[in-house]
Write a structure and sequence with these properties.
The chain is an alpha+beta fold and about 180 residues long. It has helices at about 20-30, 70-80, 105-110, 170-179, and strands at about 1-15, 35-50, 60-65, 115-120, 125-130, 135-145, 155-165. Strands 1-2-3-4-5-6-7 form a 7-stranded antiparallel sheet. Mean pLDDT is about 75; it is low at about 170-179.
């Protein structure tokens, strides 16, 4: 399982923090003016499964969450059926459902996205694609420190993008206009 330590700084207006204690402290010190910057830490987990013995499919699981590492690893290793799993409606963001100290297996399972990957050993590149309700996601990683065990070495995150899905009615209208 690849684990990427991630984070970002966000601006929180006074009185708008999810932690009510922080709202009270900030309002007591500064009144109702301004805000504060806070660092939000989370991890991105990627699990690449070996080729499926039935059909050779290459399955990948992706989880973005601030939960404890042990909880994420447990759910990624033990409890997902890639063929029947339903991806979440919104796969990105550290908002609803993301709880920093939560180890709730059911909550984490619902946040995992399942897709397929390709591996190009000559280029040392792994590409993952999965679809959630909010779009199609594409992740590209490069393999470094390759050796005789080239499939299991270090992955470096290179590219990450989301393409909005075209609603079926819009796609049909566009196809009809072209054809």
């Amino acid at each position: 399982v690849y684990v990427g330590e991630c984070g970002f700084r966000r601006w929180v207006r006074l009185g708008h923090h999810m932690d009510m204690r922080k709202n009270a402290e900030a309002l007591a010190c500064k009144g109702s003016r301004g805000g504060t910057g806070e660092w939000v830490s989370y991890r991105r987990y990627v699990r690449l499964l070996p080729p499926d013995p039935k059909d050779g499919s290459l399955w990948a699981m992706v989880l973005q969450d601030p939960c404890p590492r042990d909880a994420a690893l447990k759910v990624l290793i033990e409890s997902i059926d890639v063929r029947t799993h339903t991806n979440p409606a919104k796969s990105e963001g550290i908002s609803e459902g993301a709880v920093p100290n939560s180890s709730d297996v059911n909550r984490l399972r619902k946040r995992i996205c399942v897709g397929h990957y390709t591996f190009a050993p000559e280029e040392g590149r792994v590409e993952i694609r999965y679809v959630a309700t909010d779009g199609e996601y594409r992740l590209t990683m490069s393999l470094s420190h390759g050796g005789t065990r080239i499939f299991a070495d270090r992955l470096t995150w290179e590219h990450y993008e989301m393409a909005e899905l075209t609603p079926p009615s819009a796609a049909a209208a566009a196809a009809a206009a072209i054809g």
